[in-house]
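Weekly structure sync, notes
Attendees: PL (lead), two postdocs, one rotation student
Agenda item 3: pending single-chain targets
PL asked that the sequence for the first pending target be pasted directly into the notes so everyone works from the same version. It is reproduced below exactly as submitted, 595 residues in total.
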Amino acid sequence: MFRIRRVHSPALPVDRDRVEQVQGIFRANFGAVADYAAKIPDMLEHPFKYGYRAALLVSETSSRRVTGFSLLLEFPEIQSALLDFMATAPQTRGGGLGSALYEATREYLVDQGSRGMYMEVLPDDPALVKDPKILEQNRRRLQFYERYGVRPIVGTSYETPIGDSSVAAPCLLFDDLGRGKPLRRAEARTAVRLILERKYGHLVDAEYVRRVVESFADDPVRFREPRYGDEKNGAKETAAFHLMKSFAAIVGERHQMHHVRDRGYVERPARVTAIQDAISRTNLFAFVPARRFGEGAIRAVHDGDFVNYLKAVCEGLDTKQPVYPYVFPIRRANRPPREKAVRAGYFCIDTFTPLDRNAYEAARAAVDVAMTAGDEILGGRRVAYALCRPPGHHAGKRSFGGFCYFNNAAIVANRLSREGRVAVLDIDYHHGNGTQDIFFARDDVLTISIHGHPNIAYPYFSGFADEVGEGPGKGFNRNLPLPELADEKAYLEAVEKAAALIERFRPAFLVASLGLDTIKGDPTGSFVLTPATIRQVGRRLGALNLPLLVVQEGGYSLRNLRRGAPAFFLGVAQGLSGKQDFPPNRNAGHRKESP
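Predicted structure, written out during the meeting:
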């Protein structure tokens, strides 16, 4: 069994190993241009440096042994791509792997909204290819593509050798990706110009490019008649095989046990259901069940006595008798109150976050969701969405509140920090005071929070702009408080400031605490943002081109959750694909755009 996935960058060790295996397969299959393999990591690491965006898809076994790859050069300005190389490892020939790779490549481009895929194959004409072995290889390749209804373009000068080369030039093929529309001359000319100038610009001059481009005279473009089979039977049917999605959503069922039915308690199970239903319609996500983790990750972030208290008090309570904090002593580390109800105030920051029999287990289950998302990112997934409930960003080292018990985002950020620097961006309406508390003295985790000004918004006592960290962490905590009725312009300006800080920090990972209580109409927020604004935020974060782990925080209007979550992730997909529009086009929310 194998799976096919996209490798975005060689930055993570697991992806660096994949790229190195691809380079080995490349050199084994394309000895004449083996030096090209050394260029692949740089193509992935620096999108558009070469005038195109490289996309690498790999097939691998469950033990992460790479068995094949396809390398695409994407030209977003014409929504088309060139299949530059595709090959399988010599020891894994046959078994349908080549077909699976090609079909996954087509699936990837269709998901990107591509209009078509070009490819180059050396000719199968014995008058041009004298070596029988090479001629047979070329015939097999052209026969393979013809099974998909893909044939060479004829009647052009594309096959003109470059310079004085005696080697036959490749013919150009085009796959319309099932669109069923003819390839128009103008579209083909634009694509050919881009391919020649950007892939072969170091070999060809302007006159060569002009001559080849103008040779595309037919409109629509003509294709060679089938040579290897009866095309009347139709193109090859796509096998039931799918490219592994770059986006994963992690969900857990145990959040439902935390259901406080008291009047006014807006943090309810329906929030997760609303989001899950909405994002499933984007077709972006693979849904991954949460795995169970131990308490070690929690205790690495939260003080042991705090964890012990939450566990003990929750296990000892009757489900019908939740404990609400009501006495808040000035904290003395050596004299905590003895009575459980009073002691809740020793660890809590407000009067509306209760403890009941299920609170500890639900909070621990939310940590499992976040940690599973972390594993997905470390395994090479580009975006992981931890649908955590209860939320966590108000939970500090030894405090809970704001519906939060354990800090899901901080716990997984701390885990990721073992592999490289982490930036945590909190875009909930309320200040991420708990996350700030946990990382305030650290320089390996940059924390940024965009939120309602603490003069008017919970938690009131933190989130001021002058809170910048302490000790080694000085300068690595930034707060961007906004006025009560902050609109799209003000918010996106703050996002741009945050993005600039993240780019300067150069993290290996980005963790986003996503609160959808920034959208107009949320019962706990006062901003007047729209789902279109949230989409722009997602787009900017995607454009940072970092492994992105999103942890769900607030957002208490079910209507806003249903609109805001898909908008955010469609924006992320656009940013990752290079379809950037930031600062936003004011009509962006009214356009129908593919992710």
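Discussion points:
- Residues 231-235, 580-595 have pLDDT under 50 and may be disordered.
- DSSP finds 16 helices and 14 strands in the chain.
Action: rotation student to compare against the earlier draft before next sync.
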